[in-house]
Amino acid sequence: MSDRQIKTGAIISYGAIFFNIVAGLVYTPWMVRQIGVSDYGLYTLSSVFLSYFLIDFGLAQSIARFIAKYRAENDQKRINNLLGITTRIYLLIDGAILLILIVLFFFLSQIFGEFTPLEIERFKIVYLIAGFFSLLSFPLTPVNGAMIAYERFVVLKMTDLIQKVLIIGLMVIALLYGYGLFALIFINGLVGFALKVYNLIYLRRKERIRISLKYFDRSLAKELFSFSVWVFLIGIAQRFKLNIIPTILGALSGTKEIAIFSVAMILEGYTFTFAQALNGLFLPKVTRMISAGENRREITDLMIRVGRIQFLIIGLLISGIMALGKPFIQLWMGEIFKDSYVVALLIIVPGVITLTQEIASTLMYVVNEIKYRAILYLFASGLSVALGIWLAPKYGAIGGGIGVAAGLIIFHVVAMNLVYSKIMKLDIKRFLYSVHFKMFIPFVLAGLATYAIQNFYAVDNWVSFLAVSSLFSFLAILGLWIFSLNTYEKNLILSLVRRNKR
After folding, report:
1. What is the pLDDT of residues 347-362, one digit of tens each?
2. How far apart are the C-alpha atoms of 358 and 323, rounded to whole Å?
């Protein structure tokens, strides 16, 4: 049942990603034309600015980890007690965040000194709408963690897909009827909240969980926080690594640079989402492997199997952005966003390593060794912020991208792999050889061929872009099939093709 849920959940995840990409490629430039570059900058800023305060303090992932552990021990009572404690904690945090957001509202004009008076007034309205729905949704944050722990992957991923479809569909209708920025923020918040409520109702009915707000256990709360404090620090570091750059640009460069950076963030988000489609699906499996006493070699084997599948997709996507990202962005968003290509490369390329290591990341959560990840992420974020503040006034969005890239390469790639090898006892050399060394050559050759073709064949319209990108994909996939894929991976792909035909 678990393996079937994982496979089906992964298929739905990638289906949602493809829909999001196709819809985004068509919808995003149309939306920017409808509301303008300035409002698009405010639209992006509203979500990233509020995200600094709506941190789940690591409790959502802690819940997934502890419920998976208690399920393996068949201890339903501790699961119910855990949910009772975390619900009370989330409600208290929600009240504290409300007070912080109220105070910040009166200082928005000082925080974003580069905004015009009109932009400040519009952002205040956006801030109120987005803040209202964020505060409503925040106490429901643990629901996704519980769904993962109970291995309800199909429903969880299906609601993600429905959310994407509903948001884009309702936004298109709103813009066609003449509504603007404020309607888009309202739709985003309402749909997200409604589907979180649905997941909560589903989980209560199917798993018969009981949440008692009266229950409190000091020892259980202490155990929970000893784990979640590190996840909390990771959450802060991740936000400061990338999401804070639009705020820095808003304070030092203006809304245009926010918009340029946000386009690069969209491409980074697509890449990240492809890799994270499998995120969380293996937590129960790795937990069972550790409980059964399986050694690090067996976990490294699983890491290689999953990493190769992730690299098939991530490698194709990242090498495609490197080879064709510049003409794509100019065709998609226009000449004004040409700098987004450089920013995208800076923040995406390091992910060719980090985004294929889902199993190593999951293992750190299972064995409660995430303090190393938290510390490295904090250093990476500190470096990104410092370089961003230094470079943004002169170089704008590109300066922010340089800061992010430096933090990613030094701490996420180099230092984190040392931790995986020395602390987690995973065979990282074998992983890098089996995944990246054996599979990267077809991507490099396809990319070089694509660059060479562009010297003789101008990619200046969608027909020529589709022709060259199709050739790139064909060369990369053909090279992978002949030189890189093993029998298991070929059979996996063929079985998916046969299933789709049926």
Report:
1. 999 888 988 888 888 7
2. 26
